[in-house]
Sequence to fold (381 residues):
Amino acid sequence: MSLILFYILAGVILISALMVVTLRNIFHSALSLVFTFFFVAGIYLMLDAEFLAAIQVLIYVGAVTILILFAIMLTHKIQSHSARQVNENVIPAAIICVLFLAMAGFTMIKTFDVPSAPSSGAWTASLDLSDLPADHQRWNWTINIEDRQGQSYVAGGYFALYSDRRRPAKVRPVKLKNNKNGYILSASSDYSTVEKIFSADQTAYMKVWTDGVDINSIAKAEWTLTAKTDFEVTIELSNNAIEKIGRLLMSDFVLPFEVVSILLLAALIGAIVIARKDE
Amino acid sequence: MPGLTHYLILASALFCIGIFGLLTRRNAVGVLMSIELMFNAVNINFIAFSRFLTPDAISGQIFAIFVITIAAAEAAVGLAIIMLLYRNFRGIEVDKINFMKW
Fold:
């Protein structure tokens, strides 16, 4: 089902991209560029990147194409309808591009033709470590997922805490570099394992894959965490990457974020200075 | 389910179309549009790798955000340059603008 959707999106993208580079009227090229951008946003949605799809529509479809249309209007000449739009390099360029595409496609098929993680049903679970009881080393978890048709699925895995000697241990904090207490937590699901050192007040995020469930059709998901004793905790589920993007932009990527803001300012001023009429 | 290879081949096809436009367009605005196509291909690659290889980290999406930002800045400056070219040369055919060639 989603394969058909992918082929439709990819077909529209490639056809309209070809129209961008081959149409004689540059104005029509710009309009098919809008189509390309819009359907690339659809590809982002298929890749679970909703925030980027929204950004793509806002910035590319909304802003960049408007800029391009303005530039076309301001530089268009009447006789350029009949002017040749391509130079004499068409045939060598086409040969080079087809060769490059064949090489790249061959390499990709050879390299990445491995079963990768299943492409649907990703949920992120967050777990407050201080909620874990202190007398066990390993907690099994199961997740019950119900889709809109009322079918239910089960996935499972375990959380394990390790001591600093890499053996399963009872909850015993390790000393981190900044003299805080921390835990080495290994969280595994059916398809992925996350292993990270957490400090006591941190929340552990992990992505959970469930086979055969389309992520858009999930209606309900409930977590249970069980140890040997009767112990049950509900884990908060969140499926939005937007919160993580915001956190990353303000923590790990704060320097590139600030640099890019200065770059944008410089580009803004530069564009005004370049395009201004001389007095 | 489309796998990683599907997305990579789509991205490389889009990138090749962008290269083709870059090499063959005479209109400078057309060259800029081809560059935007190539940026989109790169973004698809980033997000696909982020989605399939490291589903727990979303650094690929962050990179794509930076690429989109820089593409917007590039479009603004590029179009300003095109305006200036049009004012000084009465045309924006890139094969006519050759006064810095020897």
Notes: Residues 132 and 171 of chain A are 9 Å apart (CA to CA). Chain A is about 45% helix and 25% strand.
